[in-house]
Write a structure and sequence with these properties.
By secondary structure, the protein is of the alpha+beta class. It has 2 domains: about 240 residues, 3-Layer(bba) Sandwich (FAD/NAD(P)-binding domain), CATH 3.50.50; about 180 residues, D-Amino Acid Oxidase, Chain A, domain 2. Helix 1 packs parallel to helix 6. It starts with 5 loop residues before the first strand and ends in a 15-residue tail after the last helix. Flavin-adenine dinucleotide (FAD) binds next to helix 1, strand 2, helix 2, strand 15 and strand 21.
């Protein structure tokens, strides 16, 4: 099939946001008598799930310090749970065990969960935390953890399968997905709207454009001639670059994944730990003496997870661009820290460092100046979904965008308007060592 000459809704990017938008938009257009899937085309330069969505750990949680993020995540959780088979969603829960600096923040998150009717459990005090953890994993041994927040909803999805599930749903609603089509530029009219999109296989006239390009946002932002600098969220007089890149450090320990099991033989929750206990390698060498944060899960063929990301600046030297997907090869430093922290937490992971995978893993994320998403019309007919790397779990954003495009408003997405930078209305920052909590 060649590129059509025109389409009403052109979606750029076949990751979680592009495909969730395509699916919900096709459905709502039909339901509202405004058209249908035939009006929706997704163009993707590589293949379905080739970007960040396909390499994500796939964790789905609602542990967010900021109320707008919590509300949006509960909405996303509803969508994950609406079709767990197609979305390859494992509803195993999400457990965060943290050190003293995080205690007040996690207590606040728990209170918000309670007020919003989201089921979670909060444990305080080092002794109680250890007892609670040993009730799930008999060999839990991490010291100096003061709080646990155990979400009974949430968990993780198999990332590639989930995105293919969305593509199937979009195509069932008659949306088209064209792979191997790279967007190279935009024709912009006098009123600021985009009239045509240039690709490497031709030009297409458009009614609306939805940009959902994940870590490639800086390039597309430039093509749309949008401001590359914003007022600093904390000092209005200072300007700062809007987009910068972090390398997400993730990997696998290639052992039988079934060693990671709960005391009652169940698939374990996704576990997240923040601590500042110094970590030592199997040879007794000090490998980490700063605060650290890790997460891990039972994967299909290994134990998989990650640690705090590395800032790689406003130019991405790891090159997630062009024809390549945003793979990033993590190295020995990551595996020294991650394997030592797993062993620090659970006896069953002692001696596992030699089984660290040598396959490429991890990836690059584009983060905004305040580390929160930009969900907004950036031109009169161009909606940008740029999630500041919060987003595999945000499967419900496309649903809200579809509502907006079919004439509704979205209270859930309003706090993520681009105008917050000029208005100096940043979302509150947590004490977490991760930029996405
Ligand atoms: C290693 C890693 C682990 C992560 N783990 C998690 C996690 O556990 N939970 C979580 O919630 N989030 C996680 N994230 C973040 C999450 O993956 C992203 O926020 C989310 O997937 C972004 O989705 P997207 O649809 O915007 O982008 P993507 O999935 O990257 O899709 C964008 C698509 O656009 C295409 N594209 C780019 N430029 C063009 C162009 N010019 N023309 C046509 N097509 C183009 C790309 O090929 C790509 O397929 C992780 C990220 C990484 C890198």
């Amino acid at each position: 099939m060649g590129l059509p000459q025109q389409v009403e809704y052109l979606i750029i990017g076949a990751g979680v946001h592009g495909l969730s938008t395509a699916y919900h938009l096709s459905k709502y257009l039909k339901e509202k008598g405004q058209g249908g899937g035939a009006d929706v085309l997704v163009v993707e330069k590589s293949s379905i799930a080739a970007g960040a969505s396909g390499v994500a750990c796939g964790n789905v949680r609602c542990n967010y310090y900021q109320e707008p993020m919590t509300r949006l995540m509960i909405h996303c959780m509803d969508i994950w749970e609406s079709d767990p088979d197609t979305f390859a969603y494992n509803a195993v829960g999400y457990l965060t065990a943290s050190f003293a600096p995080m205690a007040a923040g996690l207590a606040a998150v728990y209170q918000r969960h309670q007020s919003l009717g989201y089921p979670s459990h909060f444990i305080e005090g080092e002794k109680h935390v250890k007892k609670y953890m040993q009730g799930i994993f008999y060999d839990w041994q991490a010291e100096k953890l003061e709080v646990v927040l155990h979400e009974h909803r949430g968990g993780h999805a198999w990332s590639k399968q989930a995105i293919h599930g969305l593509a199937i749903k979009a195509e069932q609603e008659d949306a088209q997905v064209m792979t191997g089509v790279t967007v190279t530029g935009f024709e912009i009219a006098g009123d600021g709207s985009v009239t045509a999109v240039h690709t490497d296989v031709g030009v297409i006239q458009v009614g609306h454009v939805i940009v959902a390009v994940g870590p490639w946002i800086k390039t597309l932002w430039g093509m749309l001639d949008l401001p590359q600098e914003v007022a600093s969220p904390h000092h209005a007089a200072d300007m700062m670059e809007l987009w910068r890149f972090l390398a997400l450090q993730e990997g696998e320990i290639e052992v039988n994944p079934y060693i990671h099991i709960t005391n009652n033989g169940q698939r374990p929750p996704l576990v997240h730990v923040d601590s500042d206990v110094p970590l030592y390698g199997e040879d007794g060498r000090l490998v980490w003496d700063q605060p650290w944060g890790i997460y891990f899960k039972r994967d299909k063929h290994a134990v998989q997870g990650g640690a705090v990301p590395l800032d790689v600046g406003s130019e991405c030297h790891i090159d997630p661009y062009g024809a390549r997907s945003p793979f990033y090869c993590v190295g020995d430093d990551f595996y020294d820290l991650w394997a030592a922290s797993l062993a620090h937490c659970m006896k069953r992971f002692q001696g596992m460092r030699p089984y660290a995978s040598t396959r490429p893993s991890g990836g690059v994320g584009a983060f905004s100046a305040d580390n929160f998403p930009v969900f907004d019309f950036m031109r009169p007919n161009v909606y940008v979904i740029a999630d500041s790397n919060h987003g595999f779990k945000m499967i419900g954003v496309g649903e809200q965008v579809a509502r907006i495009l079919t004439g509704e408003s979205s209270e859930l997405l309003a706090p993520f308007a681009f105008s917050r930078f000029a208005a100096q209305k940043p979302l509150p920052k947590s004490n977490a060592p991760f930029p996405w909590m």
